[in-house]
Amino acid sequence: MITRTIAPHVGGRRRETAIDRIDDPFVPVGRLSVPIEVVDASTLYPVVAALFRSENVSSVAVCDAAEPGRVGIVSRDRHTAVSAGTLGYGRALLARRPVGEVVDWDPLAVPQTMPVVEVVRLAMARPEARRFDDVVVHGAVWQVVTVPTLVRALADVVTRHWRA
Fold first, then answer.
1. Dihedral over Cα of 113, 21, 127, 104: its sign
2. pLDDT tens, position by position, 74-86
3. Which domain CATH number covers 121?
4. CB under 8 Å to 89, separation ≥6 — which residues?
5. What are phi and psi of 80, to 5 degrees?
6. In the prediction, which pLDDT does 12 show?
7. Which domain of life is it from (predicted)?
8. Which domain holds residue 119?
9. Which stretch of DSSP H or E encloses residue 143?
């Protein structure tokens, strides 16, 4: 069961907006993040797999009703890996399994007010295999930001200042 649907971008086309452009590397990361679908850990995996049909969904957040402070994330890469599974039987094996069994329960989660440059620093400090995993942005609404979006925004700031 989907806990909340708060991601209007799920059905839309991928696009870059003016909000993707920043002039200061110390702006809050909340300016670059987008709402994320949130499901309960007991949700059957096929429900979550259906959310990834939209190319705009980079990840899905997972909350655990048994432990309210516990936040996890299923990235598109993780979804692809578990869907393939051993010998290609991943989808069949997950058909009756809850998403809580495949979620990353230790994602990088930052407040909406944290500066973009600090979030990039934290993301790049992660182990190499997880360096480009999406970042959960918490606040009144759960959001997510991709590391490529953060790096591109930071590079744009540096480039604009370098040219000036």
1. positive
2. 999 888 888 887 6
3. 3.10.580.10
4. none
5. -60, -45
6. 42
7. Bacteria
8. 26-163
9. strand 143-145
